[in-house]
Amino acid sequence: MSESFSNVYADRERADAYAQLEFPGTYFLAFRDLPTLIRKHVSGRIALDFGCGTGRSTRFLRDLGFDVLGVDIAAEMLERARRQDPVGRYELVDEGDLSRLPMRSFDLILAAFTFDNIPTLERKQDLLTALSSLLPPTGRFVNLVSDPAIYLHEWASFSTRDFPANRLARSGDRVRIIMLDVPDKRPVEDVVCPDADYRRMYARAGLLVHEMHQPLGRPDDGSNPYVRCQGWRGELVSNLLAHKIC
Length: 246
Ligand SMILES: C[S@@+](CC[C@H](N)C(=O)[O-])C[C@H]1O[C@@H](n2cnc3c(N)ncnc32)[C@H](O)[C@@H]1O
Description:
With 246 residues, this protein is of the alpha/beta class. The protein has one domain (12-148, 194-244): Rossmann fold (3-Layer(aba) Sandwich), CATH 3.40.50.150. It has 8 helices and 10 strands. The protein has helices spanning 12-19, 27-32, 34-41, 56-63, 75-84, 121-133, 195-204, 225-232; strands at 46-50, 67-72, 89-92, 108-112, 140-146, 158-159, 174-179, 188-191, 211-213, 241-245. It has a 7-stranded mixed beta sheet with strand order 3-2-1-4-5-10-9, with helices on one face. It has a 3-stranded antiparallel beta sheet with strand order 6-7-8, with no helix packed on it. A hairpin with an 8-residue loop joins strand 7 and strand 8 (188-191). The protein starts with 11 loop residues before the first helix and ends with a strand. S-adenosylmethionine binds at residues 7, 9, 50-53, 56-57, 72-74, 77, 93, 95, 112-114, 117-118.
């Protein structure tokens, strides 16, 4: 992977589109298990939303009762977050530099889809190590990432049919995907990272995996038309998304 990989979220049009995104289509599946996981594993109320974007995940944590700070490297995204949520706390950080954040002080760190956009295993490893140092011994890290399978199929909320090169992608390679639930249909560029690689990096960062979920639709999701129609065809009922508590 070349260093020329650019953060597609440092872009006004993308930020405007993302600011309208709440939990449409099958997005709710990615977040559905989080309250239960958090209640089970997290003690304390101080949270960091790493890669907060336009603040959707930050507001999600605040609604769960956390005192939360959102940080991101894209000024465009943060500007929308602040506009939408003037009482929220949002800060710009330099890529790879979390040194301004207090060590061992967050009970919970959430990275919601942030690691999908971090190029190279080395950069991911450095960030995981830095995030690990922000956690006290009782702290927990939830990493919500896209399963590599998402880049290979058609989904309720995503399309990849225009990107046959995705099929050849290996760990660390770029892949492209279109978000169907936002007006901005330009492809998002992500970087594939299988679970086995994340697990190796967690271990090196001193993070212990407690639980992993791959939430899918359930029969009682029938009221959601996307899930229902995919379920009827006997296919996977949602995009595969994994979140892990380490
Ligand atoms: C897909 S968006 C998700 C935003 C938000 N977490 C949500 O779920 O709505 C990923 C965000 O991660 C940010 N990001 C990418 N690399 C980052 C880094 N090294 N440090 C902090 N944020 C980063 C991007 O700028 C983008 O806003």
